[in-house]
């Protein structure tokens, strides 16, 4: 989507006037020819109520007058209700630096001050959140302490000197040889 730029349109019109092309009245602007009420348009000659024609200056004045008229019309045509506040209207936008620039969205305005009741409610909510966080932290610390105590107890139990096992002789029965039972006993 292309945003129309009134300044560029006016500059194009001024360039057309300078080039000598046909205009709305169907007349061609060239130096030395007569137009409108028998006046001759040449450099240095007087016309239009005693004004002297200077090449380029007249176009600048016309351009500035057109711009002034455009901005005045634009300012007067704006409504007193911002467009973002109207029901279903487009969002409010920032003022443009130039007419050809895409408008940016306005930042959200600051919130209004809180009432004393809102402040108390927010303070109570913050205090409740702090106590809940402290309780959760305390429970976590207690759980870690219990785990550490269990680990310490198991390490102490593992490090207690244990009475060594005394080796005992084991009776081994030998196979019977010719009906005789032999044993070490």
Automatic annotation (TrEMBL):
Superkingdom of this protein's organism: Eukaryota
Region Disordered, residue ranges: 1-62, 79-138
Biased composition (Acidic residues): 10-22
Biased composition (Basic and acidic residues): 23-62, 121-138
Comp. bias regions, Low complexity: 82-92
Protein name: Uncharacterized protein
UniProt source species: Boletus edulis BED1
